[in-house]
Amino acid sequence: MYRKQVRRRRAVLALLIVGSFALLTLTYGQGSNGLQRGVTAVFAPVASVLDRALKPARDLINWVDETFDARGKNNKLEEELQVARKQAVGGKAALAENKELSALLKLDKSAAIPEGTEPVTGRVIALSPTVWFSDVTIDVGSGDGVKLSDPVVNGDGLIGRVTAVTGSTSKVMLLSDHSSKVSVRIVPAGVQGIVKASVGEPERLVLGFLNSDKNIHKGESVVTAGWHGEGIESRFPPNIPVGEVTKATLIEQEAQERSIVRPYADLRNLNTVQVLTGGNP
Amino acid sequence: MILTPKITARLVVVGLLGVLLQLTFFSRVELFHVSPDVLPALVVCFGLLGGSLTGAVSGFAIGFLLDCLLIQPIGGASLVLIAVGYAAGTFRERFEIHSRLVVPLMCAVFTLLAELGFGGVEAMFGIDTDVSVLVVRDMLIKSLFAFFLGWAIYIGMRRLVRPALVDEATVRRTRRPTVLGA
User: Does the ipTM surpass 0.90?
Assistant: First the structure.
């Protein structure tokens, strides 16, 4: 009797494992399938209601975390403030130049939304729980005009692109996902490169150069370049702000042809986002 | 655990609520820059209360729902959580839980293993970028969260499925004469 039970258990276990592998094989590489569309259609409204209902509790916990964080950062910020004060004089002179460059590169707020695209505002309703995925689910889908590969931004800059769509929800692969690659340009240096993630560090992106004849410097802006090629599926419109170069030592640039970029958008804390629809054919 | 339709319905509700709360609440709060992952701990509790079969089936179902709601390849999360549920259930079937620390410790250890498992599934399909050592820190902190949250989940679930627990029924039966005598 006991042996029969054990055999039954093992058979069910084997069935579940084989089933999982079969599902994984069948669904890998697909954007979304009928089953997922059905499940999300049922649960997305519930998730949306829960998301709104739990926002005060989330905010409270995040406030505690940010308070601890702020205490630690206080000393560092005071030191930075002193340096910034000294630089303020030089900054005034740079301001005029900056305005000129901003106008030239159209990096003002309105230019973050490229011509020919229609922004669709959505809310983040679900977030992947593991450290290995950087995906969020938002509450707008094909019914709102969202298509695959549409770029997604928030008030600070680019956050990712749409990788799967259902009628009422979309999956957004963030810049910090290990499979994300974005063709970018550094301004004003003009150096082109590809921004990839560093798994486990959403505040750190790795910029690999394509041409290394020019050097880049800390503080320079990184914007989307607008092209795509082999291995880069992104079709981001040009000039969407991506981030800022935070580390660009000559050794790293020359030996490894790479530097470090901090994304403008806080990829750990996303609430309202905009999908730029209509830009992709 | 004796699985009656009523108890099964309760377990289904717990599983659904667990996944929805994970996606809408736990994944979006941060302490020490890390979000808690309660799903491996939830599956461990299913396994500890219901045995290996219940653990494996609940792991599959929770992973399946998670993959569907996150619109990612179905089966990856299930594979990892099946292993977690089955292992936790097998532990319960072979050993008695004497210490109160066993459950939270198991939740912490299995959360760590589950995170490694998720990484393994991702690596199976290729990771074409740097992997920071901070991933290890994140996984350890997630395990720490699972230690405390797993304890709470286990107590809550135990209360919810109490009528179906064989050992609880035995305890109640042995206590009854004492109560009447008083």
Answer: no
